[in-house]
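Ticket #4471: structure export looks truncated?
Reporter: QA, pipeline team
Priority: medium

Steps to reproduce: submit the single chain below to the structure queue and open the exported record.
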Amino acid sequence: MIIKKTFKFYAAHRNEEIGGKCANLHGHRYGIECFFEVRRRNSISTPFAEFDERVGSLIKKGYDHGMLIHRGDPLYQTLSEHMRVHGEHLKLKVLDGPTSVENLAYTLFSEISALGFALMKIEVRETDTSVVEYTLSDWKADRAKFAWRRDDVHPEKQFGALGVPSTSFSDACVTVLDTEA
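Actual output as written to the record:
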């Protein structure tokens, strides 16, 4: 059985690698549709509130009204220095790759799966007309392709019974800048 949940968040970003208008700092109202495989336990499967509490909290704390930024973007160093000098805390979601919607889908898939849900597919809407559909198969292929970015590659620890990441697996590909530390 599949449960579909929808979430949204607002975030700024830029993609410095592709140039043109996308290289400028701009924002989106991202829409996310998550498709979870669930098993029925008696008369219910998973209470919808569990998705709202855990996934909603992840989105609100890590993404909503923040800025997605690539660790290799020169703007990241500028903002880091600005925060250090002025004592200002900006909400930055730091990715190890450009902040394309494809990389965002990978990051979200990794983080939501790590919450212990059997995520089968995620759809990330960047604009009214642009949606990326990202599946478990896509995620597994990207994990293999970008394994060189991680120092924690232990395939035997990565997947649970359904082929999704175990809750104890920590994805070092994605880092949230902790400005409180």
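Status: closed, not a bug. The export was complete when the record was re-opened. Leaving a note from the reviewer for reference: The beta strands are 2-13, 26-37, 66-70, 92-95, 118-127, 130-135, 174-176.
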